[in-house]
Write a structure and sequence with these properties.
mainly alpha
Length: 211
């Protein structure tokens, strides 16, 4: 769709106000036919005043032009997809804006992620981060309870596998695990696949939150 739209925009040839092929020739001394890639005769004829001349701006798109159209369309589409991902999967976590059941699901998931690291050594850093994004005493108490009696992995994942909560769960997993521990990368890859997160979202979260 993006390709078709750009092709239509770029194939419309309209002259701007004051545009004159004849004036361009008089000022520059360059015959428009010299700039016409479709001219193969090699012979230049200077048109008389009032003569109709077909220049580059009037010729149909060729193969080279289409390559430019496709490149521009690809960049536009890529930018649109990035913006769409940022809208659907915001990476800025603010627990104050989440519903109580969503906060509870994230705390249960955070406990599972901490314990997935094996030794729970990252729990303190995770608590500090959670306080910074809006966790109050009641929220931290939910985390402590979940660390004592964690839900099964599949239950915790299912509770956060919807909407933008999935991206938040991935961020929590990043912060709940020790950065250089052996299980961290494989576990994060599993979480991203299980939550069906787009690659761009995963890369953005890794760049922003991995220590």
């Amino acid at each position: 769709m993006a390709f078709t739209l750009l092709e239509r925009l770029l194939t419309r040839r309209t002259r701007s106000d004051g545009d004159s092929v004849v004036l361009e020739q008089l000022v520059t001394g360059i015959t428009p036919r010299l700039l016409d890639a479709t001219s193969t005769s090699g012979v230049t004829h200077t048109p008389s005043l009032g003569a109709s001349t077909v220049g580059r701006r009037d010729r149909p798109l060729g193969t080279g032009d289409m390559e430019v159209v496709h490149a521009v369309a690809a960049k536009v589409l890529h930018g649109w997809l990035q913006n769409r991902h940022q809208t659907l999967y915001p990476l800025t976590v603010n627990l104050r804006n989440r519903r109580p059941e969503e906060v509870g699901a994230l705390m249960h998931w955070a406990a599972v992620a901490v314990l997935a690291g094996g030794d729970g050594a990252s729990a303190g850093a995770l608590r500090d981060w959670l306080e910074g994004v809006g966790a109050d005493a009641a929220t931290l108490a939910l985390l402590e309870d979940a660390l004592t009696a964690p839900p099964p992995l599949h239950v915790a994942l299912s509770a956060v596998a919807h909407g933008d909560l999935a991206a938040h769960a991935y961020v929590v997993a990043i912060l709940a695990l020790r950065p250089h521990a052996a299980p961290t990368r494989p576990f994060l890859d599993y979480v991203a696949a299980r939550l069906a997160l787009p690659v761009e979202v995963v890369r953005s979260a890794d760049r922003r939150y991995r220590r």
